[in-house]
């Protein structure tokens, strides 16, 4: 990363009645702590770290104004006076460090995952089994009052303002769009009627909280669903919100049911700042750009070019709570960059688990995963410089231990060095860069290109030995497996052996998908925003409702069959928020994704399989094996027999589908405990 002054990031934002210290807004993200017993104490520590880290304005995860609007049956709401006290814990801790904080008011509407949901019209969401009831006129007016009540309670709890969630396909967004509003009364039909609900909420909130209270409105600028907004409607609503007294307009991109990716790692950085810029031209209140802004350079570019007045980052501040301070200290190269993998944050939230972060397992565990100076300093050897070994080595050295890190490879990173080559996963370079900087800062003694023996480690007189040696590909017991056209995934990704025009990939887990993507993509679009937008059918001319036009698939010259034994849908085990994107990518490249396949034998012209009771030979140039891994533990028993204290972490411990999330957490937790 190049260093810069980032002068626009650190310019205060004057709202007249109050000032925000810089242009960084921590975007709303539900953590799951909101519903845990004692969760608000943990939530206070979570937000305090980000406030201490330099953020200007924090927006909390969505809090419902009433019971029917909850995201889930026991979801958080702000509706009773006794709800105030627990929120005050959060606001007091944030204010100690000079940041401001707004509570997001979110009514889920038809996205409410319970049988009491309400919506403008009784239309079921494609991502929810529960069909909502259409709201009566009385229920609409009561809900408006509930928004105002929630805002007043938030004010009593010490919040500096509220964000009214009007995007992402939640209730207000549902009123705004003909896709979900088919009413014929005063709340439906014309856009003037459809936007009444949003404006009445803002007016009711402003009347309840007075002039000196921040109101952020999250405006859906690009719905990315059929029958969404037109650009004229977005601009009309933005101007009306401005007149109604909102302080800031935040950008919303895409509904949760949209079939266009908006935040996964293959989305180009700042891919949607163009629409924020387009709307900002028509407004006078500050406007916030969102989505895939994960470096100070990107943030500064958006602000300096006039695309937005603030930048919103949520996941990047999970990854590194010190993001803002590091940028201000000219230490952008030391930022633990968000790789937009979603594995520990959004995937967890959608599974009703506590959110965290793959590259920062302390996120949302600040009070539990505590890294303190070691009382007894030890000499520790770590074998393996993949994600688990790096996380352990850096954390242990940070605590004061003397750490020697060995790897037979010539570079750190382990399996991340293969992942970073996959089109759309270039962000993995950033994690390797971050760990390289952290190794230097913590004083780890890095010894690359050195394979270790048990005798050598014993001779080192270490107090502890940590085996982070990773995995080796599992060998298939299949006749013909030794034929020359059979390759392993390391042959393809590490050794770059030539691969023919017709390929069978055995194993449809994460690695099988990665290899298939690698083999069928000539050029990654992660850094080519315009081409990426064309590929996914984003109408930047905004001629159609929702900003959609036909997608432009990229068929591949290479023909690939992605095969799995299981009868389940191919890719079912991938992440909830990103798996559909990977499937769509491969489908667009005409990859054949076959389940229920039995492998009979490899033959000279391909591979013999059985599917649906039929035996056939797939005539292919190469067979690539992606059928799992086994732990690499060659030295463990020898070391134990020699009386050494040995710990297994990462793939050396459990060689399930390559799991960097578990590896980094396991390495960090062991280092914090030793």
Automatic annotation (TrEMBL):
One of its GO terms (molecular function) is iron-sulfur cluster binding. The keyword Iron applies. The keyword Oxidoreductase applies. Residues 9-333 form the NADH:flavin oxidoreductase/NADH oxidase N-terminal domain. Residues 379-637 form the FAD/NAD(P)-binding domain. Keywords: Flavoprotein, FMN, Iron, Iron-sulfur, Metal-binding, Oxidoreductase. One of its GO terms (biological process) is fatty acid beta-oxidation, unsaturated, even number, reductase/isomerase pathway. InterPro entries: Aldolase_TIM, FAD/NAD-bd_sf, FAD/NAD-binding_dom, NADH:flavin_oxidoreductase, OxRdtase_FMN_N. Pfam families: Oxidored_FMN (PF00724), Pyr_redox_2 (PF07992). Its cofactor is [4Fe-4S] cluster; FMN. This is 2,4-dienoyl-CoA reductase. In the N-terminal section; belongs to the NADH:flavin oxidoreductase/NADH oxidase family. It comes from Idiomarina aquatica. Transmembrane segments: none annotated.
